[in-house]
Hints:
Blueprint: H1 2-33, E1 39-54, E2 64-78, E3 83-92, E4 97-108, E5 113-121, E6 148-157, E7 161-171, E8 195-196, E9 204-218, E10 221-234, E11 239-254, E12 257-268, E13 280-284, E14 290-293, E15 295-311, E16 314-328, E17 333-336, E18 342-345, E19 352-363, E20 366-376, E21 404-414
Antiparallel strand pairs: 1-2, 1-21, 2-3, 3-4, 4-5, 5-6, 6-7, 7-9, 8-13, 9-10, 10-11, 11-12, 12-15, 13-14, 15-16, 16-19, 17-18, 19-20, 20-21
Amino acid sequence: MRNLYNLTIGMVASIFSFLLIFFPLAVDYAIAQSDDESSLHVGGAVRYNLLLESYESDISAENSQFTWDTWRVNVVYDNPDGIGLNFEYRFYPTFGTHFIKQGWLDYDFSDRTQAQLGVTQTPFGNLQYNSNNWWFSLPYYVGLEDDHDMGIKLTTSTDNFQWDFAYFFQPEPEGPSFGGESDFGFGGAGRYSYDVIPEGNTSLTERNQFNIRGVYQFDEGEFGASGQYGQLYNRVLEEFDNRYAFAVHGDFNFGNFGIMPQFLYYSMDAINDNGQEISTVYMGAYGSPYEVSTDAWIATLGLSYSYDVDWGPVSNLTFYNDFSYMQNTVGEGTTLLASGDQLTLEDNFESTIQNITGFLVTAGPVFTYFDIAQGINQPWLTEAFGTGVGPGHEDLGIGDSEYNIRFNINIGFYF
């Protein structure tokens, strides 16, 4: 495994050496070809969130909130030489944290080929999102939707195909966690997208991830497949293990109707600091870390209907339903969790279901999502936060899995 690691580092060093040599030559060529001016746009967004929760208990003053969800700063720079910058930093008062969401330098080799270096989106599955709603779909909660990591990506297209190739040395930088609970009961994990993180007796981090994504594009949309291979590094044992994921996906539009199917499978070989194989790992983003199964498949289907209107500032209504099903495939017998708990299973871990029904109202720079989020064993849709994409309520002895509902309105002003 160490040989694989050394080989990977050698490949990466070669890539970056090539870029360091080639980029100055390419820039000199571009300067000679262009007299246009550069452009710089500074923008951002402010978002508010109203929520009513009906989880294991009924709606009350304790589970209904109106919060200042987010504010963020965006910077986009374009240069006629083909060099650009895309940067976004976010602040989350509700979670008591802030962090970089994306930040890359890009270079346009041509109208169809671009390289990005820095914190950029992982090319996996339907892009930019595998969902229509504010909540995303279940792949997001296991780090496989709108994931951002630190590395380099190349995107190129022909008349009908688009290809993405990427290498990520590590996840995106973390923001502050403040080491405690926020006013709304969350510990700050200080990052935008879910990644494996060190917690308790599992000193694991993501390293050396390779991605390839290809789609066939036509007038009504696109369909294709994605592959991902990476490593989990145990800092205590100084050992590497493997992780991988595959997906087939499509994004189609027929008139006003949209259809977005996806099927994925992922698996991770993981050990704790004692060298024992574990069936869950800790993953974290905004809230407190939770345990995620090391082996599962997820099927999603998004349906939408977009309708233009002329109601004062309101220009469009988009109605949607996004369904997700996750089947953990940890088998029967005795299994060890990342928390150190041992479970004796008669069957697999429990499945997770999420369904989001809602509509988006577009009014100039204001975008408002009205969502009814429903879930069984969904890690955010429960009073036992984080339970669901691992063993589940019943296997952990918390009680029966319940059908929980959250009504959510998110109002965002973008500029």
